[in-house]
Structure formats: structure tokens, C-alpha cells
Amino acid sequence: MAVIIDKNKCVGCTLCVPACPFAAIDMVKGIAVINDQCTLCGACLEICPVTAIYREEEQACEECTPQSYQGVWVFAEQRQGQMLNIAYELLGEGKKLAGALGVELSAVLIGADVSNLAPDLFAYGADKVYLVEDKELELYRTETYTAAFVSLVKKHLPEIILMGATNIGRDLAPRVAGRLVTGLTADCTELSVDLEERILLQTRPAFGGNLMATILCPAHRPQMATVRPGVMKKITPDYQKSGQLVRESYHSQEVTVRTIVREIVKEAGKVVNLEDAKIVVSGGRGMGSAEGRALLEKLAAKLGGVVGASRGAVDAGLLPSAHQVGQTGKTVHPKLYIACGISGAIQHVAGMQGSQVIVAINKNPAAPIFKVADYGIVGDVHQVVPLLIAAIDEQNAKKQP
Amino acid sequence: MKIVVCIKQVPNTTEVKFDPKTGTLIREGLPTIINPEDKNALEEAVSIASRVGGQVTALSMGPAQADYALRETLAMGATEAILLSDRAFAGADTWATSYALAKAVEKIGEYSLIFCGRQAIDGDTAQVGPELAEHLDIPHVTYVRRIVSLDDKCVVVERALEDGYEVVECQLPALLTTLKELNVPRFPSASGIVTAFDEKKVQVWTAEAVGADPAKIGLKGSPTQVKRTFTPPVKGTGKILTGTHKDAVQQLVQELAAKQLL
């Protein structure tokens, strides 16, 4: 349970020193030494040219019996009887994992009078739907949903659970993992299975998106992960397909409830559907004023796209935070992403690098955004964007017979 | 009212730079700060304590260097500060971290509220708050953007949702995780800084001091393990369209049209 540098092997090359994100490696008398800052992240392991750095691995815990856990589960999050898209996206991903493992894919549907949503879950890939209905479960509350979910897990023992990294999924998942004494990996961007060990490989951005980390939960079950909306792909629904509906009861008398939801308020203008957009036109701090925002909106409207923003633009008040793309904003994967006046900080790139084609317009030729762009134009957005709008008009005019 | 605030000292990940030649992180001069949303947590606690009376205990788990962040909490108005620090905590994931914090909170004793920032900028998991509440068997509310009312028995808050918010009433003791919309953290006063750094003390508690089970802390107590970390792959440098702006835009439109993106 430590990262260790073999001092007989270390040749003092210092390559590991800058590789450590936590400044945990010092050079002492020409040899690398790990200090107290070490978080055991392992970033130094692969960089060492003489394999002097290794990690002492933990023995598997004996009381856990991962073998008795089987199947992949997805939390089918609904709000006021409406299924969220993330549930279908997770089913798409879950189907791949279940296929690789040769097990069933199940959806967990919790609410009051929500059985009508089950056919959609089957169509999007679920082999089985566990349905827990009770009037106490009409609105999401941490305590009631945790109790319902945990009792299902204890009864049916799934090996993998996926939840959406929504404001509700990120509330429920840690509470469930805490109670089940198991691992939870947040905001995974890639999931796969090590078939030999039968372990879920969970890859997520770490250190503010500056690094990627692959996380394992070797000895505890279930293995739990959350995934942000827009990251995974749903399958084309097949309404010929059916599945098994399993009704489970909710024992309200056994659950201590200390919270009440008094009301739910929808705020107009808060919903910006960036995750499903085919075209995104994003602006950065370089867009400057309200005039810049108008330019973005005009270009987006011309292309039938949605307006996005960098954190810089949101902090500067150019656009509300609902438009933010990136590590602390939304993850998008449109066919076309146009970055206007965005420098391309890694936190922004983390949210848009899944786009099929990326166009960058920036006056600084050294801006990192050009490294991820398919097409770049070096120039002032206030000059280039109006020209682009005009050129698109021209192109559209050509298309007319 | 007794309030506990959990804070984390984090590297300022928004200022990370990469060496363009080697592709590795440049860490020299990377400042450490109190995690931004933890400052909102602290601000709320301090302002409640000054309004209704009471004391605020700032709690952090981390290496000895986190003493600095805790002194900053004292300068901002925390009554006392506790650093949970022990080599045995190293490598803790969110489960083991929240377990250790829970043992410290139990040692602190009678409390009405615990505040945590929603998530830390170096991990972005948002898991420690809810897991801490689970270990303590108290209710929690995440994504708190406004406190509507508070008395001895109950707190009413607005909890942010993607498309609005919900108003949640919660019995005390409870744990709340805070968003930056909640308030504007105060700057410490000059005299506050002097007192915090010259006169006040940060208590240091070890794993043994809080009675933590050695099997449940650090890497050993962590269900998850990091298998490897790597620099995110980037797409190769694309095509820079040259010529006048007009030429460049024409080329772009043709390329996009050829790909049927227009």
C-alpha cells in the first residue's frame, strides 16, 4: 500500500519529478525519494526508464466473494414520470458490458405509478426491469431511494451498477455505495471489462481533467460508476423486444425519513440542451461583449445549432452557466463544434473533444485549442465570424435550385 | 449552534500547465488553495454562527501542509481547526476518507450542521459529503444554493436541479453540500490573519486519536484503487486555413459542405 522507489535501481534521471502531479518526489543525493505528499496515484510508475518505481499491491479481502455477484444494473432515473435520456445512454453502455460478461442487463425503476415506462427500457436494451412502486417514492428523496435501491442490491447481488451523474444520481450513488461498503467512481468517460479478472475498468478525468485515471474496485461488489449525460451512446430502440418485469415491494415502515420535498420549481431558460445538439457554436472570453454573444447566436441559428460557452465566458457574464461546456460544465459530442475565441484550456477540451469535427477561431496562433481542432483559422473572431456567416449564406443560396 | 465545516486543500488545478516538449505537468509554482466550494461552506457556517450564536469547527484530512489552509479558515472566522493527519490515511478513496472524517466528527461531538463543498476541483467526485452523512447516519442535502430558514430542529433549503430547484425541509443534525451560488466568501481581515497565524493553533489528530479502525482507512480501507494514470490523448494538429480571412472562411465552408455538415 505504497509507491516505492528502489534506490538500487534509481539512476537519478529526474524524469519522475515533473511527472508527479502532487510534488511528491524529491531528489535526495541524486536519488528520487517519495515524500508525504504522495497520494499513490501512480502517475510516476510508467515514466521511470529503469522500472525502479513500483506500487505494493493490496491483497484481495477474503470476506468478499465477488463471484456470487452477477449482472449489470442501470438506474433508470425518472422525474415526474418522465424518463431521463441518461437512462437510455446507460443502457446502451450497459448492454456492451453485459454482453462482454455474458450476463443480463437490468434497469432499476423506482417511483409511483411508473410501470408505463418499462417498455421503453426494454426497447433500449434492458433484459429485465426491477420495478419498485410506492406513493412514498413519487419524488426523489435520498433516504427513500437509498433504502429501496440497497434492498434490491442485497437481494439480487449485481456485479456492476451504473447511474447518471445528474444532480440526483450524484446524490444517490455515494449514499448507496457508502451503505454497501463498496467503491464508486464518478463521471466515468470510458468503461470496459477485464474479462480475465472479471473487473470493471473505469476511466475518468482526474486532477481537474489534466490527467486520466483508470480506477478498479477489485475486492468489493457491486462495482459502481456514474457517467455524465451525453457521454455514452444509446442504441436504436427496438419496440418488438420485450423483457421480464420484476415487481419488488417497498417497506416504508423500515425507513427513517427526515426530509420532505416541499415543492419543485422549474426555471425558464435553465434548460440548454447541449448534450443532444448536433452542432455547437461556443464562445470564450475572446467574444467580449453582448455584441459577441449576438454573433454566436446568429451563427448558431444559421447552422441550426446550440450556443455553448467556456468557463471564462461564463465567469465574464457573457452567457449563463447552463451553456458551459467542459469539466465543470457539460459534455458534448456534436457532429460539428465551432470554438470562437476559446483558448482551449484542458478543462474545456475535456467536455468537447468527443466532437466529430472541431473548428477553432482564435487570434492567438499558439492557443492550445488549435491542437484539438480539425480546422483552424487564426484571426479576430469579430472579423472572422461575420465572414463565416456570410459565406454560409452564400453556400445555402447555391443549394437552392 | 455547533457547526462542522469540512475543507480540502487542493492544488489550483485551473492553473496547471503542461511542458509542451515532454507533455508532462509543470508543477513548480502551482499554488494550493482551499477548495473554492468549501469556502462557500465555511462562509455559510460562519455567518450562521454570528447570526444565531454558536461555534464553527473547521476539519480537514490531509498532509501536514494543510495546516496553512486551516489557518486560513481561522482567519475567516472558524472558532477552531482540526487537521486529521496520519501516514495511515494515505491513498484513501472517498469511502475511506469519509469514514475517517466521520470518526473525527464523532470525536468533535454534539453538532447540528455539517457543511461540505459540493465537490473538490482536483477530484470532482462530490462523494465525500453524502458518504460522510451515511457513516454518521444523518440526512443530507446536496447542491444547496440557498438556505430558506433554519431553527434548532430543522433547516429548509433550495437544492439546485438541472432545470430549476426543489425546496427541501430537513431535520437536524444534517449535512449540506454547498454550491458557489450560495454566498460570496468573505476575505479574512488583517487582524484575523495575524491572530490565525501567530496565536491560534490547529489541532492535529491521528487515526488512533479518533479511534479509526486501521482496516477501514487509507489505501487498505479503500474499495477503489487507481490502476494507472495517463495524459489524455489529444487529436493531432489539424489544418490551419491560411490566406486572407475571407479565403480561410471560404475553404472552411467548402470543407464543411463536403462533409455535409452545413
Describe this entry's structure for a reader.
- The complex is a heterodimer of chains A (401) and B (262).
- Chain A has 10 helices and 22 strands.
- Chain A has 401 residues and is an alpha/beta fold.
- The radius of gyration of chain A is 24 Å and the shape is globular.
- Chain B has a single domain, classed as 3-Layer(aba) Sandwich (Rossmann fold).
- Helices cover 28% and strands 29% of the residues of chain B.
- In chain B, α3 (94-108) crosses α4.
- Chain B is globular, with a radius of gyration of 23 Å.
Low-confidence stretches of chain A: 59-63
Number of domains of chain B: 1
How far apart the termini of chain B lie comes to 61 Å
Helicity level of chain B: 25-40%
Spatial strand order of the main sheet of chain A: 11-15-10-5-8-9-16
CA-atom Rg of chain A in angstroms: 24 Å
CATH architectural type of the largest domain in chain A:
3-Layer(aba) Sandwich
Q: What's the arrangement of secondary structure elements?
A:
The complex is a heterodimer of chains A (401) and B (262).
Chain A (H helix, E strand, L loop, with lengths): L2 E3 L10 H4 L5 E4 L2 E4 L18 E3 L16 E4 L2 E2 L2 E2 L1 H17 L3 E7 L6 H6 L4 E6 L8 H15 L3 E5 L4 H12 L3 E2 L4 E5 L4 E8 L4 E6 L6 E5 L16 E5 L10 E8 L12 E5 L6 H14 L2 E4 L1 H5 L20 E5 L5 H7 L4 E6 L6 H4 L2 E4 L2 H19 L2
Parallel strand pairs in A: 5-8, 5-10, 8-9, 9-16, 10-15, 11-15, 18-19, 18-20, 20-21, 21-22
Antiparallel strand pairs in A: 1-4, 2-3, 6-7, 12-13, 13-14
Helix pairs in contact in A: 4-5, 6-10
Chain B lengths: L1 E5 L2 E3 L5 E2 L6 E2 L5 E3 L1 H17 L2 E7 L5 H9 L4 E5 L9 H15 L4 E5 L10 H9 L3 E11 L3 E8 L2 E8 L2 E5 L11 H9 L3 E4 L19 E6 L8 E2 L4 H14 L4
Parallel strand pairs in B: 1-6, 1-8, 6-7, 7-13, 8-12, 9-12
Antiparallel strand pairs in B: 2-5, 3-4, 9-10, 10-11
